[in-house]
Amino acid sequence: MAGSGTAHLRDDPRVLVRVEHMVVEFPIHGGTVQAVSDVSFDLIEGETLGIVGESGCGKSTTARAVIQMPRPTSGSVLFRGTDLTQLSAEDLRSVRPDLQMIFQDPISSLNPRRTVHDIIAEGLRVWGDRGEWSIDKIDELMEAVGIDPRYGERKPHQFSGGQCQRISIARAFVLDPKVIICDEPVSALDVSVQAQILNLLEDMKARYGVSLMFISHDLSVVKNISDRVMVMYLGKVCEVAGSDDLFARPTHHYTRALMAAIPGSRAIVDEQVLEAELPSAIDPPAGCRFNTRCPAATDECRSVEPQLRPVGDGHFVACHHPHLPVAAAS
Questions:
Q1: pLDDT of 158
Q2: How do the domains of the chain map onto residue ranges?
Q3: What pLDDT, on the 0 to 100 scale, is given for residue 326?
Q4: At 291, phi and psi to the nearest 5?
Q5: Are 242 and 314 in contact, with CB atoms under 8 Å apart?
Q6: Cβ contacts of residue 265 below 8 Å, gap of 6+?
Q7: For helices 161-173 and 116-127, what crossing angle results, to 10°?
Q8: Which alpha helices (H) appear in the chain, and where do they start and end?
Q9: Per-residue pLDDT reduced to its tens digit, 149-167
Q10: 288 touches 300 (CB < 8 A)
Q11: Which of 7, 74, 9, 67 has its CA nearest to residue 35?
Q12: Which of 50, 190, 251, 291 is most buried (most C-beta within 10 Å)?
C-alpha cells in the first residue's frame, strides 16, 4: 500500500474538486512530520467521497488542506478549475463560502456566547443572502435540520450533542456551499444518534445538491454514506473504489485488515487484525509504508513504492501483491 499516482483520477466534466500530488508537512523540533505524501483524488458534483483510515493516517489533514487550512506544502487543489493553492488570501476568502466544514466535536465548535439563531445566521451577515437562504429564512433552515425555531434564542450548552451537530449542519448549509467537508461528524455521538445525523446529511445533500467529503475511521459508517471510498495509511492512498465494490471486494491488505476488525466481518474477509504500532510519520518506512505490518510484504515492498493501478472498473489499489480473485489475478 501506501502508494502514489493519478490513475484513479477521472476525466469527467462534473469534477468539482481535483487534488493532484498534495504534500502537507509540518516542521517540528528534530524533524518533519510527513502528514500527507503525494495524495491525489477527485470529487464530482453530487458525490460523497469517504476518506477512511486509522487515527494519524492523514485523512483530516488531507481534507482540511483542500480548503487551505493548512495550505499544502506542494501540489495543486483545483476547485472548478481554479487552483486554490495559487490564490491570494483575499481571493481565497471569496471562494470559502463554497467550501464549508462540519467538525468532529459539535459542542466545542459552536460559540457558547451566541444564540443558535445568530450562529446559523452569521455567515449571511458577513456575505449577504446566498442561493436558497436569507436571514428571514433561518427558521426554515432550522426546521430542515430538525431544530425547533422556537429555541433559536437558546445557547449551545442547552442542547444535546446530536442537536448541536444539527446546528452545525445548518451553519454549513446556510451559505449554499458546493462542497461540505465532514470531519468525523458522528464519532463523538451515541450510536443511535449517529444514524439520525447520517440520514440528515444524506437528505440535505439530495435536497440542496452539495458534494460531501466524509472523513471517518469507522468503515461501517463510511459504507452507509459514501458513493466512493479512499483508504489512507500514513499519509498515502491505499485503495480507491466505489463503496459497494470496496466492501464486496477489498483488495489491499490494509483495507482487508480494517474490515476484519469490524465485528461479524469474518464471513466477508479473512485477514489478520492489525497489531503492530503505526510507524512514525517523522520517519516512515521506505517502499510501501504498510510493509512493517503487512502479512504479504516482500523485499520489493520494503524498497519500491507501489503505484495506484486498476484492478476493476473504477477500482484502484497501490499494492505489489494485492488480494485478487483467482480470475482477476491470472
A1: 95
A2: 1-80+178-188+210-330
A3: 54
A4: -65, -25
A5: yes
A6: 259
A7: 10
A8: 59-66, 89-95, 116-127, 138-144, 161-173, 191-208, 219-225, 243-248, 253-260, 299-303, 326-329
A9: 999 999 999 999 999 999 9
A10: no
A11: 74
A12: 50
C-alpha cell read off for 301? 515492498
Closest CA to 252 of 223, 285, 288: 288
For the chain, report the end-to-end CA distance as a whole number of angstroms.
21
What residues in the chain have per-residue pLDDT under 50?
A: 1, 267, 329-330
Q: How far is CA 27 from CA 2, 31, 68, 71, 281, in A?
A: 22, 6, 17, 14, 12
Neighbours of 7 (CB within 10 A): 12
| CB distance 253 to 261 below 8 Å | no
**What is the per-residue pLDDT for 269?**
58
Cross-sheet strand order for the sheet of 74-79: 31-44, 15-28, 74-79, 82-83
CA–CA dist 283, 178 (Å, integer): 37
* Separation of alpha carbons 89 and 87, rounded Å: 6
Torsion of CA 11, 15, 21, 27, to 10 degrees: 180
pTM over 0.90: yes
Of the candidates 217, 201, 254, the residue with the CA atom closest to the CA atom of residue 60: 217
The rounded distance, in Å, linking the Cα atoms of 51 and 302 is 25
Return the ∠ at Cα 244 (arms to 314 and 257), rounded to 5°: 95
CA distances from 301 to 5, 293, 297, 304 (A): 16, 11, 6, 6
Pick the CATH number of 1-80+178-188+210-330 from 3.40.50.1100, 3.40.50.1970, 3.40.1110.10, 3.40.50.300: 3.40.50.300
Let me know: does 4 contact 318? Beta carbons within 8 Å: yes
Amino acid sitting at position 329: A
How does pLDDT run across 170-209, given as a tens digit for each residue? 999 999 999 999 999 998 888 889 999 999 999 999 999 9
Backbone angles phi, psi at 256, to 5 degrees: -65, -35
What pairs with residue 102 in β-bridges? 182
